[in-house]
Design a protein that fits this description.
The complex is a heterodimer. Chain A is mostly helical. Chain A is built from 13 helices and 2 strands. The longest helix of chain A has about 30 residues, at about 20-50. The relative contact order of chain A is 0.18. By secondary structure, chain B is mainly alpha-helical. Helices cover about 70% and strands about 5% of the residues of chain B. Chain B is built from 14 helices and 4 strands.
Chain lengths: ~300, ~350
Amino acid sequence: MEILKAVFLSPFAEMIGSPRFFAEVVVGGLLTGVMYSLVALGFVLIFKASGVFNFAQGAMVLFAALTLVGLMEHGAPVWLALILTLAVMTGLAWLIERLMLRPLVNQPDISLFMATLGLSYLLQGVGQLAWGSNVMVLDIGLPDQSFKVLGILINEQNLAAAVVAAVLVAVLAVFFQWTRVGRALRAVADDHQAAQSVGIPLNRIWLIVWSVAGMVALVAGVMWGAKSGVQFSLALIALKALPVLILGGFTSVPGAIVGGLIIGVGEKIAEVYWGPAAGGAIEDWFAYMLALVFLLFRPQGLFGERIIERV
Amino acid sequence: MLYRETGQFKSTYVQDQAIFPIRQDRWAVALIALVAFVAVPLLANEYWLQAVLIPFVIFSLAAIGLNLLTGYAGQLSLGTGAFMAVGAYATFKITTAFPGLDLAVIFILAGVAAAGVGLVFGLPSLRIKGFYLAVATLAAQFFLTWMFNRVPWFYNYNSSGTITAPPRRMLGILVSGAAAPAPVRYLAALSFLALLALAAKNLVRGRIGRNWMAVRDMDVAAEVIGIRTARTKLLAFAISSFYCGIAGAMMVFLWLGSAETLAFDIDVSFQVLFMVIIGGLGSILGSILGAAFITLVPILLTNLPRLAGLDIATDVSKNLEYVVFGGLIVFFLIAEPLGLARLWHTFKDKLRLWPFPY
């Protein structure tokens, strides 16, 4: 009886009892969701353009953040460090394309997936070998105060992350929709062979996609790093981005954003209202369960392309 | 010269269907069994058994389990660690409730429990496949480890939150607990591996295995030729989890002695997946080779610098291990995407003709 009450009754009573607190939880969840979206975005970009399920995205976030912090600790100003890190990520994309993707062309998807798992180990190791494995503080001058709007507490840093994410998505949308390279990217995403036969260089497209994913990883790394310090656990947020992908669909940029928001809000609400009844720390798996239940009804995700089976 | 099958005629169906149709293979297997069951326990010291051989045997079993699911039935799973945890916690609960029951029986029961859980978490495979399914199995991984961590009933309300292997007997011989000697624990684990590997080999040669492979290659086509895909997929999940569950039970009771959920976290799932991939998808022998490779490499990596006289700080060597490990996996996938099992077959084909070129 007690447990039933704790699950079905008191959470809702609490929500109605203090709507302001509820709104605060929702806003907090939305802002965390934006951060998940940022990571998920990197996955979607690569999956769309090359069909590779890039498990190393989390490691790339860590690697980018580590490089940035490392450069800044060596005295580089923020803007220089950012540019240098971007250059490093582009170089990395080039290396990945040359050494990993090209020899693995035409292999089954699972081989490519495994290769990115290996890559993820490799990047974590290299990043920490080069810059040390201590927790480092990333301070690029983002404000970190909270203020109130309509009586709801909002953290400025989270808000900045949301703004950055919005700008990033807008830029990517423009890039995909209206530029020559973007159109080539969409062509490759649709059909590798057809794209190649009309003269789109596959290798260069992959290089661009992985560079863009590296850039997104850098943005995500900056945001997460500023929030919780640059450390090994950054590589694990990739695991948090996976349910977001399921929810939004592997191939949809808006899906990554909406999925991230849903997961962020759902997780926060579950943790705050149902966490005590379940013994706490349900954040670890709640997103996965949400995604799993969702999949049973809509296997291709919210915005994913319909799966059509042909024999 | 040495490896010729000329003159070995098969005159009965039984001979034709033998697992090892070539006489030299049978000798080799007998020799390996002799070494593994007799020579190793007599000669190996405590360190070798505890650090290398027992984990190798246990992870071989887990890798066979995952290979049945991923390599044969084509369902990618990242929840191996969780299914192993189910086996371990089930063994712990059963053996503390019925202390007199033989540990071998309990292992089987724990495997059945894991199979049941695997069945439930295999249900999404009826609707989704590929990477979506892989992410869905991560739900099993996170939910189950959380549950074993948070619900005190599973570890009998003790204050440390760990499960500890009590002294228990298997067929009258003490195999678990602090007093059980390493060679005995090794032999117990090896016996389970040998029996279950044989069972797996026969399973995949028969109707069930063929159904799995048909579903793996194309499930719509499999359905068209009359295979019940739902049942086939769920069976793959159940049997795979059965193997993983027993491996998990052995991990706590025959190897570690005590464990908490951290011993079954997502890294374990990845490790077993690496074994399957490096060993070769869809090969029982490959699972064992892959397990040998993945358990040996980290040990080599930690010991090599010391042997070479280099003194490396632990965090550096840990990161170095990551780098070498990741690099090796990428290299392996490029050099031999079909895994160690494929290498072995190429070697055998060469050996058949040796010393002539053709």
